[in-house]
Every structure is written in structure tokens, then in C-alpha cells.
Specification:
Layout: H1 2-23, E1 33-35, E2 41-43, H2 45-48, E3 58-64, H3 69-82, E4 86-92, H4 95-103, E5 109-112, H5 118-124, E6 133-148, E7 156-158, H6 159-166, H7 176-181, E8 193-197, H8 202-214, E9 233-235, H9 237-247, E10 251-256, H10 257-263, E11 266-267, E12 269-271, H11 282-289, E13 293-294, E14 303-304, E15 318-326, H12 335-345, H13 348-356, H14 364-376
Parallel strand pairs: 3-4, 3-5, 7-12, 8-9, 8-10
Antiparallel strand pairs: 1-2, 5-15, 6-10, 6-11, 6-15, 13-14
Length: about 375
């Protein structure tokens, strides 16, 4: 009887854990996993169905975008549970650092929140023998504007006001421009503490593209990975910016939605000129990303996004993270693992993980082309 009661209590506890895990988005777990007989975490049949190890083996190093870290962590967890002969190690740093590592030949692929620039493609030819670096869109999602203002639970901003905040022109939360966008909200005279990324970041560049396209003369800077505006405070990585916003009263910053979701950080609704302000959700980001066009040529699938969209329910501050790989000239010892792992991330099961964890899947028509290109990597 004691043993039966102990097992019942253990089952109850495990059930509670599963329920709580389904409600909280984290960087290190997936609700689509089950315990194997040896106690190790294994992906369910649904998660593992699209994982094919083929000839993959050994160690696969990758680095870059912190925007996709939470998604990549889940992908790696599921993939390595099936392909036990492969060790995938993704170093979350920044898009800029990932591309540098790729062009130095120290990683099998890099994650970047912006497509390779012409000079970076040229550099890649030294590593990709007989080929060059190409962009494979793999992760979509909203760039959330997180805020922490005591007593304020809901906040709407538009592009000019957001630009003025990050450009150090609006300094208090009860500024008239903010009050006008938030009638009925009791905004305190708290000083605004704006946080941005300290290192070169594709997330910074995508926010810059949005502000450049929509904020008029409030944002005159060209979009770049390096933060361009005066003032504000710097923090390292999306995780660093999110941590500062969470703990500092009066703070505002930008990071991928999964960081806000996992830490309970409130996010800004964006007034785009549509009938109603738009919240940062995977579904709303998908509406914006679905209108993207392929701007790359050949095997390169770089996308052109419409940051100035006014479509109903389309959240405009979005990014697409690319996996940067050689189209030809990949190292023979890592090519099978690169193809096997990316085939999984681009699969239906791999993309389904995105929508479950604060990201947006790549539109099906584009994702079909991604899979076709992966098959041709050499």
C-alpha cells in the first residue's frame, strides 16, 4: 500500500509539472517530450517524426543570433535525443559574431537576424570552396518592446513615439506624446530607462529597419547591427536586455517575444495606423512575415519584409533569423550533420515548435524552398 501511494503521489507531481510547463515558455524545455525508460528526456513520436540522422556523426559547432536561442535549444534537445552520435553545440552570442565565426571557418553554420551583406558573401568564398554563404530563413517572430512601469499594465506606442524614446528625446513616462496614445492610463512621472544591445545585433538592425521605415524625422539613422542613437543604457544579448527591463522601474527595451514570455515581462502594443493597436504575438507576427518576398537569388533565400505594414492584426516589428551555410564547399566531416539537423529544423515538426514557443513559423511556401536548398548543399 505504501508503495502504491508513493507511486500515486509521484504521478500527481509529474502531472503538475507537465501542466506548469505548458503554461510557461522557457529556453530549456519542450512540452512535446516524454521520459524514456532510462529516465532521459526523449522527443515524442510527433516531435521525432521528422528527424532523420542519415550519415550525421561527430560534433557540429554553430553560433550567432541570440534571438533564436530558445528555439535552437529545443531543436538540439529533440535532435540529439534521436541522433545520439551527433553533438550539436550552438553558442548564443550575436548575429555579427556568428557571421565572423562562419567566415573564419570555425562553425558549420551561423545564425543571423539579418541577411549576409555583399562584402560578407565575398568573404565567405574563402571558406566555402567553390561556393559561397547563403541565407536560409528558419525562425520568424516578433521583436517585443518590453516595459516595466510601476502601476502600468497595458501600453500602446506608435513608431514616432517609440523612436523618440529610444533617441533620448522623450524622457518621462507621463510625456504628452505617450499620454495621447494611452487615454485613461495613469502614467507616472518616472524617468524612462531605455536599454539597447551592447554588441552588434541583428535584432537591433531589424528594429532600426522598422523605425527607419515608419518613424519619419524622429529616426534618421540607417539600420545597422550597432546601436546608433545617443543615450540609453547597453546590455549584452537579448537575455541581458530582458533582465534589465524586468528589474528596473521605468525600463523599456527590445528582445524576442520568448524572452518576455518566459520572464513575465509586459509588452507594448503598436499603433500601426490599423483599426486597433497590434499586440506582439506569434500569430500577429506571422501575418506580417507571410507578406515577405524572396529577395535573394539562386540558392540564397534572403527575404524582404514590409516593416510599414498597416494590415489589420499584423505586428510590424518582426525579424527572420537565417541559418547561414555554404551552398558548396562545406567541410566533409560536418556536412552530413549540417544537412540532417537543418532538415529537422525546417521540417513540419521543427517549425511547429516555433509557434508553441513564442516564435512564428516560416511561411509554408518559403519553407518548402528552404528544404529544397538544404537537399542540394555540398
Amino acid at each position: 500500500m505504501k508503495l502504491q501511494r508513493k507511486n500515486m503521489l509521484r504521478a500527481s507531481a509529474l502531472g503538475a509539472l507537465v501542466v506548469s510547463g505548458a503554461l510557461v515558455l522557457t529556453a530549456c524545455g519542450s512540452d512535446d517530450n516524454t521520459k524514456g525508460p532510462d529516465g532521459s528526456t526523449k522527443p515524442s513520436a510527433a516531435a521525432a517524426g521528422d528527424i532523420k540522422c542519415d550519415d550525421a556523426k561527430g560534433k557540429l559547432l554553430a553560433s550567432g543570433s541570440s534571438a533564436q536561442k530558445n528555439a535552437v535549444d529545443l531543436w538540439i534537445k529533440n535532435y540529439m535525443a534521436v541522433c545520439s552520435g551527433v553533438e550539436v553545440n550552438y553558442k548564443s552570442s550575436s548575429s555579427g559574431e556568428g557571421i565572423v565565426a562562419f567566415n573564419q571557418g570555425t562553425v558549420g553554420f551561423a545564425g543571423s537576424d539579418s541577411a549576409l551583406k555583399p562584402e560578407q558573401v565575398e568573404d565567405s568564398k574563402k571558406i566555402c570552396t567553390g561556393g559561397q554563404g547563403i541565407n536560409l530563413p528558419m525562425v520568424g517572430g516578433p521583436i517585443a518592446i518590453g516595459f516595466n512601469v510601476n502601476g502600468v499594465d497595458k501600453l500602446t506606442l506608435d513608431a514616432p513615439t517609440l523612436a523618440a524614446i529610444f533617441n533620448d528625446k522623450i524622457k518621462k513616462w507621463d510625456d504628452e506624446a505617450i499620454k495621447k496614445l494611452n487615454p485613461g492610463v495613469n502614467l507616472p512621472p518616472t524617468a524612462i530607462q531605455a536599454f539597447h544591445r551592447s554588441e552588434d545585433s541583428g535584432t537591433t538592425e531589424n528594429l532600426g529597419k522598422y523605425l527607419k521605415a515608419t518613424a519619419g524625422d524622429q529616426w534618421t539613422y540607417e539600420a545597422a547591427k550597432k546601436w546608433p542613437a545617443p543615450g540609453g543604457q547597453a546590455a549584452s544579448g537579448s537575455a541581458g536586455v530582458a533582465a534589465q527591463v524586468k528589474q528596473v522601474d521605468g525600463a523599456i527595451g527590445y528582445f524576442e517575444l520568448s524572452y518576455a514570455s518566459s520572464q513575465g515581462i509586459k509588452t507594448v502594443d503598436i499603433n500601426t495606423g490599423a483599426a486597433a493597436p497590434v499586440a506582439a504575438t506569434p500569430e500577429n507576427a506571422s501575418k506580417a512575415i507571410a507578406a515577405a518576398k524572396i529577395a535573394g537569388t539562386g540558392s540564397d533565400l534572403a527575404l524582404k519584409l514590409d516593416y510599414a505594414t498597416k494590415a489589420e492584426g499584423a505586428y510590424p516589428i518582426v525579424l527572420v533569423t537565417y541559418e547561414v551555410v555554404c551552398d558548396k564547399g562545406n567541410k566533409a566531416e560536418t556536412l552530413p550533420a549540417v544537412k540532417s539537423f537543418l532538415n529537422y529544423t525546417a521540417s513540419d515538426a521543427g517549425q511547429k515548435i516555433l509557434s508553441e514557443n513564442g516564435y512564428a513559423p516560416i511561411p509554408a511556401e518559403i519553407n518548402k524552398k528552404v528544404r529544397e536548398v538544404i537537399a542540394t548543399l555540398g
